[in-house]
Specification:
This protein has 495 residues and is mainly alpha-helical. It folds into two domains: 1-46 and 282-414 and 450-495, Glycosyltransferase (Alpha/alpha barrel); 59-274, Glycosyltransferase (Alpha/alpha barrel). 46% of the residues lie in helices and 4% in strands. A three-stranded antiparallel beta sheet has the order 1-2-3. It has a two-stranded antiparallel sheet with strand order 4-5. It catalyses: Endohydrolysis of (1->4)-beta-D-glucosidic linkages in cellulose, lichenin and cereal beta-D-glucans.
């Protein structure tokens, strides 16, 4: 294939060079990427709900949510708080788990000793998701905590006194989106434990199949079933079709069962296979699905999956100015910008997809992506991902790392209840719902660093307000960190 570079692509590359002139001149070493990897995984320990194990490393946290589900005669202790509040939202928790598992599947060999900590992070979630999925037949428990009341309080998870209501989807009130994402999480995780704990892996896969069948046979959006309990917090804006295709894809990857190939073949066109979508998130899985299924063509040489490779190419091309499919917006400092609220979630997911696709291309020795008359190499794809990863770690106009505890300058006033208040170990007296706001309004830095947390990030002009009240920029979330684990593993293995 000939290589053609358009004038607009040259212009885009020149603009990237000009942007880089405004950045710090340093380059991160593989050891620094590995340090960031360690911290990005440690973050999940700070988000744990339930009874903490003896080897828990985030020393300022304590046990919490020990009676979750008990008033409903179910055991829903464990899992993760998604962000800076004390609600356990099943939809983003499942997506974060899928992305952690995918990170290990693709880049676990580069994680060295940290792979055990990632497995522990995944298992903390899958243990919970198994309980949520198997306690009651044809039912999936998808949330613990009343979010509207929780958000009116500022209190440590150890002190929670807001209602720990339990919410579920069922045959009468379906939730195909959250159920199929849970199936994806369990199936992807089964691959992570296939060698180290085959019995557990088998349980995860069999449960994934059951939950997927429930999602597929009783179709509907959980936003319609649960309304204000999940909206506007984690509404399923993209619907549930993308999750059904996503769940089927992961079960096929984990099981090798050809009936799921038939499901994808028969249903793909109605479940989003033909859509070009240019972002990947806890809500919309379509771009991720294109990358995931492109492997069947690139690595497994299955011609019927060439469609997914073509759409994966379109996604990659959408990120590069000068290509016909260009859709992306970048800040003056070179950061991919999708939205004002938690923008870095899109940066971390995109970086992960870029690197995963580069890996698939390399496996096929097909190291180029065709964007009309423009040809992108695998090196171009990796370089774009590196600019995004480096920006998050501090190579940006503000010289600030957006990962707490990494580098000399990072956010000190993050929107996170436990981090912003005295540790339960230093201040064992209860701090009630309203009393906690005295700490919210303090101008001083958070007393506890939530090490490894990646916050929402800067605005479209690279400006960042290190302000607890500005949750759009200063709140961390599990689904921001999860794909970043894979991206950091990739770069930590490069000299």
């Amino acid at each position: 294939m000939g290589s053609h570079i358009t004038f607009s692509l040259i212009l885009h590359l020149l603009l990237l060079i000009l942007c880089s002139l405004n950045q710090p001149s340093f380059a991160f070493t593989s050891q620094e990427y590995y340090e960031a990897l360690e911290k990005s995984i440690l973050f999940f320990e700070g988000q744990r709900s339930g009874r903490l194990p003896s080897n828990h490393r985030v020393t300022w946290r304590g046990d919490s949510g020990l009676y979750d589900g008990s008033s409903y005669n179910v055991d829903l202790v464990g899992g993760y708080y998604d962000a800076g509040d004390n609600v356990k939202f099943g939809f983003p928790m499942a997506f974060s788990t899928t992305l952690l598992a995918w990170s290990v599947i693709e880049f676990g060999s580069s994680m060295q000793k940290e792979v055990e900590n990632v497995r522990a992070a995944i298992r903390w979630s899958t243990d919970y998701l198994l309980k949520a999925a198997t306690t009651t037949p044809h039912t999936l428990y998808v949330q613990v905590g009343e979010p509207n009341m929780d958000h009116h309080c500022w209190e440590r998870p150890e002190d929670m006194d807001t209602p720990r209501n339990v919410y579920k989807v069922s045959t009468q009130n379906p939730g195909s989106d959250v159920a199929a994402e849970t199936a994806a999480a369990l199936a992807a995780s089964s691959l992570v434990f296939k060698d180290s704990d085959p019995t557990y892996s088998s349980i995860l896969l069999q449960t994934a199949i059951q939950v997927f069948n429930f999602a597929d046979n009783y179709r509907g959006s959980y936003s319609d079933s649960l309304n204000s309990v999940v909206c506007p917090f984690y509404c399923s804006y993209s619907g549930y079709h993308d999750e059904l295709l996503w769940g089927a894809s992961w079960i096929y990857k984990a099981s090798g069962d050809s009936s799921y190939i038939q499901y994808i073949r028969s249903n793909g066109h109605t479940l989003g296979a033909d859509d070009d979508v240019y972002s990947f998130s806890w809500d919309d899985k379509r771009a991720g699905n294109k990358i995931l299924l492109s492997k069947e063509f690139l690595v497994e040489n299955s011609e019927e999956f060439e469609l997914y490779k073509a759409h994966a190419d379109n996604f990659i091309c959408s990120l590069i100015s000068g290509t016909p499919a260009f859709q992306a917006q970048y800040t003056p400092g070179g950061l991919l910008y999708k939205g004002s609220e938690s923008n870095l979630q899109y940066v971390t997911t995109t970086s992960f997809l870029l690197l995963t696709y580069a890996k698939y291309l390399n496996s096929n020795q097909q190291n180029v992506v065709s964007c009309g008359t423009t040809t992108l190499t695998r090196h171009n794809i990796i370089s774009l991902a590196r600019t995004q990863v480096d920006y998050i770690l501090g190579k940006n106009p503000t010289n600030m790392s957006y990962m707490v505890g990494f580098g000399d300058k990072y956010p000190k006033h993050i929107h996170h209840r436990g981090s912003s208040m005295p540790s339960i170990h230093n201040h064992p007296q209860k701090i009630s719902c309203n009393d906690g706001f005295q700490y919210f309004h303090l101008g001083s830095p958070n007393p506890n660093d939530l090490v490894g947390a990646i916050v929402g990030g800067p605005d479209s002009n690279d400006n960042f307000s290190d302000d607890r009240n500005n949750y759009q920029q200063s709140e961390p979330a599990t689904y921001i960190n999860a794909p970043f684990v894979g991206a950091l593993a990739f770069f930590s293995s490069k000299p």
